[in-house]
Prior knowledge:
The chain has ten helices and no strands. By secondary structure, the chain is mainly α.
Amino acid sequence: MTTATERSVPKPVFTDAEAGAKEFPDSTARKFNYYSPQKRKQTHYEDVTVEVQPDPRHYLSQGWLYGFADGRGGYPLDWTVLKAWGSDRPVPERGPGSGGKGYDWPAHGWHEFRDPNEEWELSLYRYNANVVRQVNANVEAAKQAKAFEQWSPNWTRFVSQHVGAWMHVDHGLGLYLFANANRRGPTNMHNTAIAVNSMHLIRAAQDLALYQLTLSEEVEGFDGTAHLEAWNADPAWQGVREVAERLTAIDDWGEAIFAANVVFQPLIGELFRSQLVMQAAPRNGDFVTPTIVGAEEFDFSERDLRYTKALYELLTNDREFAEHNCRILNGWLANWVGLTVPAARALQPLWSQPDAKPVRFEDAFDRVKSRFAGIAEDLGLEIPKELER
């Protein structure tokens, strides 16, 4: 029997000079006082999001801890042309041993944004878990009740081609627009809300993909690959596809979120989901698809649009750069409405495909245009003439 020789390794020696070793009056506090809460009492949401992403204008006495190849560090404010008060303040000169905290908090107006949904990591997991649980329960109940057997061949084809095609929109925007913009936002409050938006869309794409697999097993003749041909070649989808791809190529994170949530989603997303699928499905004996599409509609209308309006309302009413921001946003509005309206109109042939028809396309489009106009007016922006094309 052999015995292992005990290895000689250095033993750690603690000197109380390590980060976090010092004790001070708030060492065990569960509430923090390094920021000003939006209301009289700070919330748990604020405690886990505010200043989690630091700012050298406030502290970080030695500057950013990391940087990019071009010399910029951290989260440059010029990643969008929009501005909040204090954006033009110079960053305090920093260096080893320079000390000082810089400007009083908040160092600039970007820090004033709060997500009205108060989303953070735990709330994201809980919400999406509940949505997936409900969607799965609806699909399982439909399978047990043999609900899919009453679908007509025409409606089966519509779901496989066109409802399936929408997952490409969700996947593309979620992964390549919102996930990308998440890294570019100027504060953790922005990036948390944008990341949640990204996860909503990625989850919705997965919901539709899994639904297509289920229907391939449950519905005779269901073609689970038909959405690929529709997305790649159907003339009705090519305008939507072009706009979606243009959206994913936007470099300015402020423009990306604005174009997607203020223009594209109201004029195309709600047109397709609420005015077509959710209206036509029950008339064609399908009570399952609306629950899946409706979950995504709720994500946008009650959560994602809510934080978007709060974000841009701050900028259009900014005490220093309101005029600058309104000019930029009105330009983006005219440009993206000009691209989106023709794409929305190209979807019109889809309204004639179900056996039992939904509301007329023109009536449906008037509804979403009115909805869009209300959002623009709430933000104090001009209704672009391109809306009437």
